[in-house]
Amino acid sequence: MATHPTPAETGGAGVRRYYDANTWKFLLTGSQRALHRELWGPGVTTRAEAVHHTHDLVLAELGAADRRVLDLGCGVGTAALYVARRRPVDVVGVSISPAQVRLARRYADRSGPLLGDVRFAVADFTDLPDELTGFDLAFAIESFVHADPAPAFFREVACALRPGGALVVVDDVRTTDTADRRIVDFCDGWHVSSLLTVAEAAALAAGAGLRLVDSRDLSPMQRLGRPRDRVVRALQPVLRRARGRSAWADSMVGGDALQRCHRAGLLEYRLLRFVREAD
Ligand SMILES: C[S@@+](CC[C@H](N)C(=O)[O-])C[C@H]1O[C@@H](n2cnc3c(N)ncnc32)[C@H](O)[C@@H]1O
Q1: Is 22 in the pocket of ligand 1 (CB under 6 A)?
Q2: What's the total number of domains in the chain?
Q3: Is residue 172 in contact with ligand 1, taking CB distance under 6 Å?
Q4: What are the counts of helices (DSSP H) followed by strands (DSSP E) for the chain?
Q5: What pTM, to 2 d.p., does this model score?
């Protein structure tokens, strides 16, 4: 039986195997147990702050009276714990990867005092359990691009939110429909199924009753071409030969392609905020 997905494999099963196989490696090379990129926003001076800058952007979207939060594609629970440490909210985190949910529960057990509560479950955000309803805020940090298909993601989130509740997506979006090998390499390497333009995302969300109310370009806060990125660039000939046989090589090829897409302006890294319309 294959222990890793092939680059061409799409859908929840491939994404699950990709994260089950790779999460511990991402944690070894990453920072703060987060599986998203660093954002060097205003006032950020350390890697830890750069990781948490995304969490702070999400926190800023939480209303004063909001109590129920849903983390869609929660990784190992870092964002959920960050939020629950700072606000008296109940956070439910869902991931398609059982390995991640096991880690998230372990980290939650050792997290120390929280102002709120956290709970983690294995679930597919394109087919959420019926009991996940009435949330004030849902957020998806670098997970929406895995949605397969994207309309199901928006439909399920709309059902999970209360009327007036908000969805915050932080992720890569296309700036153009032009076919480009670099985009294909990124999508194959990172198991990306839904790389949309903002207009496409807005139209699909509107179909589910979610109105796009804010779109912010975070791309300038990224750091491209760090020393490790240059090493990965230099290793591309070897990594490309291992593609399809190593989930790690797939992710390194995808990550290099992502950097080249951003440098070429083919992608932007954006925060999109949607509001669920009243019934
Ligand atoms: C790049 S990781 C980001 C994790 C986390 N948001 C963070 O920033 O650390 C993508 C996440 O999306 C989750 N994911 C991908 N497809 C999913 C699906 N269909 N349902 C639920 N989670 C999914 C993965 O399991 C993983 O947790």
Answers
A1: no
A2: 1
A3: no
A4: 10, 7
A5: 0.93
